[in-house]
Every structure is written in C-alpha cells, then in structure tokens.
Design a protein that fits this description.
Helix content: 40-55%
Strand order of the largest sheet: 3-2-6-5
Largest sheet: 4 strands, mixed
Number of domains: 3
Number of strands: 12
Length: 594
C-alpha cells in the first residue's frame, strides 16, 4: 500500500519529477573547462552561510548503487572517481592500517571506471563538444591546475560531488539533454522478469532498489525500505529484490517520489520520525498540514496560527475549511535503522476525516493562557519540547513522538508515556530558578498545561465518557474531582504564603509540589497547619485580602476536600494530571483577578 501510493504520486507528478534513470542531485562544485578540455577554474554553486551552505541541484544520470565495489556514476561523482584524488580522511585511515598502496591502486581503478562510463556513451553523444571536452581533460591526466585552484581545499575537505561545465554554458555537462536522453534509453535492462508487486505488470525485477535519502539519522548515502542484505531474509533460494519482486520502473518511481517528498515542503520532522504526506489528487491539505504542526518560518510567524484559526473558525461558520470530496490522504513516518528505514507510522484517511481529527487536537489543547503568551496554537515541536528533559528532543523516548502523531491523526488517546513525561518534567522543575533573575521558573508553563489538559480530555472521550467530566478551558469551580480541587487548593496556599511573606527564596512549591500531587494525605495536613500561620499574619497586615483568601479556601474545602477523606493517600496518574490543571487554572485566575 505504501509503495503503491508513492508510485501513484509519481504518476501524478510525472511532469515535475525526473524521468527514468535520472535524479536531482546537488553538485556543489563544477570544473569549468575550455572546449579543448583545458581546465579554467572551479565554480562554487553553493548558497547559504556556514554549515548551511547547499549546492545547486541539477538533473543528472541516476547514481549507481555502491557498497565495496568500484562503480562510477556517469559524468559526476566525488574527486576519487573524477580525477583519482584521495579523500584525506580515508588516506589517513589506510595509512594507519598499512594499506595506503592498496588504496591508491583502488583510486586508479575508480578513475578508470569513471572514464569508461563516459566512453561507453553512444557515439553521437560522445562526439558532442561538452563530452569531448571532458574526455580531453581526463585523457590529459594532468590535474595540477585543479589542485592549485583556491577552491580545491574546500572540494577536498568536504568530499562533495563534482561535475564539469563548459565555459559559457549555464548547466553542467551531465545535465545536457542529450546525456539525459541517452540514460533514459539505456533503462531497457536485461534480467529476471516477473510480475511487479506494485503495478501488477510484468517487468524486469529491480535487484537493488535505489537509495532513499533525507531520512533524519539514516546514512547520508541513503537507505532502503525494501532490502534483503542477509541470507536469512531470503526465501526459496532467491536473492535480493527477487524475494519481493518490484519492477525497475516501479522501483525508480516510488523511490523518486519519496526522495522528492523528503526534500519538499510536504515533510516535517516529528521526533526521530521524518514525516512526509501527500494526497491521491491535488488537494489544499498538502500545503496546510505542515503549517498545522511545524514551526512557522521567521518571515511569517503567524502562518501556523492563521492556518489553525481557519480550520477552527470554518466549523463555527458552518463552512468546511477543506472540501471533503473523499480524497485519500497519506501520512508516512520514517525512522532510521542503520542501512534500512523503519516505518514508524502509516496513516491513510480521507481529507475530511483528517481535518476533523486535526481540529479536535487543537480544540483539546485550548486552555486559558498567560498574557505573555502571544501564539495561541502550539506546534508539535513546542509540545514535545515542553516534555523533553533539558529541552532536548533527543532525550525523549524514540517512539513517543511517532505515537503522539499517530494518535492525532487517528483521533485516539495520546500515549500514556506523554503524560508521564509531562509530570516528570513538572516534578523535576518545581524548584528550578532562573539563573539570571533568581526567580522561580514556571514549572507548569502554557504548553505543558495544554498538553496535559488535551491528554485528559481525549482519554475521557475515548475510554470513560460517562464517568468523568471533561476539563474546561478555564477555571471550573464546579469540578469536584479530588485531584483537580487539591491542585486549586495548593495554588491558593502558595499564593497566601507569598502574600504573607513577600520575597521568600523557598516556597511550599519547592518542597511539596511533587508529594502533594501524588500522595496528598502525607503533605496537605502539614500544609494546612502552616497556612494558619500565614493567614494569621495576613489578617494582621492585610485584613481585606485575608477575608478574600479565607473565603476562597473555604469554598474549595467545603465540598468535602478537607479532612482525612479528602486528602487521599495516593492519586492516580490521571488525577495527578488533574491536580496540575487545577493548580494551573487557579493560578491564572488568581493573577487575573489580582
């Protein structure tokens, strides 16, 4: 299903994607030649700053599959192949192993293979001025001018791919129409013919599928979804691709489509999952999905907010933001796994269903927010950062982000590990202070509270809809859940302590928040006794405020929270979440009214 859908996408985008035997490749450096093959200089095609510099991408003959063999691409490659120059790191490694002689002999084979590929072109192509110039340059065997070029140290250090360009030309030799046309004709390969599992048609089986590049964390040279690189994976004595026969054209089509998606705007990074998405037909959702979940660009910070507002407000107006005509929509999450790619999640739905689930996700996240929070809608990255140790996404469990995304797309409950991670961060940061100001850091920030509230409401909706009320967006004084009211009470006790003793370095939050939210009976009796001292001081110094706070505490406790029955020995994980929401909403209410 995945490969078939990618194959269909290639067919839909056939006019804008490379044809058979062609791929789009970055060529950071070009050797500029005179028509007689004399070297002029190295041209730098890179753009950007520092490590973000990227070379221009050109249509080139598709690269060959490499492992330990010597196999050259046609008219492009690294300097080992193009002019037989050693890679400095490899050379040093081979010297340490005492294999420098072997490495230099291999360089000679690589350079010969590169030239042989060109010489095997059809005579009418080989005789064109561009190819003739390249052959003349290679035949000279004198590359001293290349090594003396000011850009050579960068070419050598980066190990980047290079190609050739004739002086005055706009594109590399390998991108010439005659070269690319000859490549397309040469795809009529010989080999085992079987029924292709993707198309259902008879075709020559692709033994090794083209590599898929751009999956975060995978090998830079590319990895595969379909591969059989150990004999244990083979069946009926078949080898490599024959175990799951995919025709050459279909293999080229699905890998080209996936490689295109992985570098397009239809890609977002969710934890360790490189996620791509596409529709069976042209649809607005293809451009909107990344706006819903990705961080907005710096030049348009409101992009995500506007997209989500359009989605939510369209429902209120009774007009769908995205027309649901039953178009299928695909979301594919890929994770690195050495030389292979693991499918982290695969979701298929109609555009309408998907829009409904996304709308539900953002509605569940809605919670009263502090005035300093300008952006109401949170990206996936912002939500995951809120539960990451030290704000480092790499420290999250590998599957968490993928499971989270899958739940959003399916409209199901969020993973339990997400709530656990949020509560762990709250407990770990309850006593943290800002290094610059010395003030307490917000251990229940807006994003963390929104995530916990959404987790609770989705859990209630999907698992226990009749026995537990939903968490509202702002303070709900009628909510009698024990965890929720204990959270409210803790917020008021903390506020009273701060009002009675302004400027305290250590508050009850530093020492008691974790215990209060998990084992209330062990902590709250002590907190209530200490509160009496704070209230006594408040009554003497701020009698009006004393009355206000006393009424609020009585209101919270009069529903039965006070006493041994109210202070439960232990709160479940979900009620610990309700404690946090009660604490957060009560604090927002206190600060708003004061």
């Amino acid at each position: 299903m995945i490969l078939q859908s990618l194959h269909e996408y290639y067919g839909r985008k056939r006019d804008s994607l490379p044809g058979d035997g062609i791929e789009r490749k970055e060529l950071p450096f070009l050797f500029v030649l005179k028509p007689d093959g004399a070297f002029l200089h190295i041209e730098d095609t890179r753009q950007g700053e520092g490590k973000r510099k990227r070379g221009n991408a050109f249509l080139v003959p598709q690269g060959v599959k490499k492992s330990v063999n010597v196999a050259a691409n046609l008219l492009w490659g690294n300097v080992e192949y193009v002019i037989g120059q050693p890679d400095s790191k490899k050379l040093e490694e081979q010297r340490k192993k005492g294999k420098e002689k072997h490495y230099r002999e291999r360089l000679g084979d690589m350079c010969s293979a590169f030239r042989t590929e060109i010489e095997q072109l059809p005579s009418e192509v080989k005789s064109t001025p561009e190819v003739a110039a390249v052959l003349a340059f290679l035949s000279s065997g004198n590359f001293t001018h290349v090594l003396a070029d000011p850009l050579w140290p960068q070419v050598s250090a980066t190990g980047a791919n290079v190609s050739f360009k004739l002086t005055g030309a706009e594109s590399p030799v390998c991108s010439a129409s005659g070269i690319l046309a000859s490549v397309g004709q040469s795809t009529e390969d010989k080999g085992e013919t079987r029924i292709c599992l993707i198309t259902g048609n008879s075709d020559v089986v692709e033994r090794l599928h083209p590599p898929i590049k751009g999956v975060w964390g995978a090998q830079t040279s590319g990895a595969n979804i379909v591969s059989f690189n150990l004999s244990a994976f083979n069946s009926f004595a078949r080898e490599q691709g024959s175990n799951a026969p995919v025709g050459k054209r279909a293999a080229f089509a699905y890998t080209t489509a996936l490689n295109h998606l992985l570098v397009s705007k239809q890609r977002i990074q969710i934890g360790d999952a490189s996620t791509v998405f596409w529709a069976a037909e042209d649809n607005k959702m293809e451009s909107l999905l990344s706006q819903f979940f990705d961080e907005p660009p710096q030049d348009n910070p409101d992009q995500g907010t506007n997209a989500v507002k359009e989605l939510l407000e369209a429902t209120l107006a009774g007009t769908p933001a995205i027309y649901d005509d039953g178009t299928r929509f695909y979301v594919l999450g890929l994770a690195p796994n050495a030389a292979r790619i693991a499918v982290r999640f695969w979701h298929v739905a109609t555009v309408g269903d998907l829009a409904g689930h996304i709308r539900q996700h953002f509605e569940d996240l809605e919670i009263v927010r502090p005035q300093y929070v300008e952006r109401p809608f949170l990206s996936l990255k912002a939500l995951l950062l809120a539960v990451s140790p030290l704000g480092d996404l790499d420290k999250l469990p590998p599957k968490l982000a993928g499971d989270f995304m899958k739940a959003i797309l399916d409209g199901t409950s969020y993973p339990q590990t997400l709530l656990q991670a949020a509560l762990r961060r709250i407990h770990a940061e309850q006593a943290k202070k800002d290094e610059k100001t010395g003030k307490h850091r917000d251990h229940v920030p807006y994003a963390r509270a929104a995530l916990i509230k959404a987790w609770l409401n989705r859990q209630t909706r999907n698992a226990n809809p009749d026995q537990e009320r939903k968490i509202t967006m702002s303070l709900d004084e009628s909510n009698i859940n024990s965890g929720y009211r204990l959270g409210r009470l803790f917020a008021v006790l903390e506020k009273v302590q701060a009002e009675a003793n302004p400027g305290l370095n250590t508050t009850i939050r530093d020492s008691y928040f974790g215990s209060a939210s998990s084992t209330p009976s062990a902590v709250f009796p002590t907190l209530m006794r200490r509160n009496q001292h704070h209230m006594t001081k408040l009554r003497k110094e701020k009698p009006g405020l004393y009355v206000t706070r006393d009424k609020l505490i009585q209101t919270i406790c009069n529903d039965g929270i006070d006493g041994q029955l109210g202070f439960r020995p232990i709160l479940s994980l979900a009620d610990q979440g309700r404690f946090v929401i009660g604490y957060y909403q009560q604090r927002q209410d206190l600060f708003t009214k004061s």
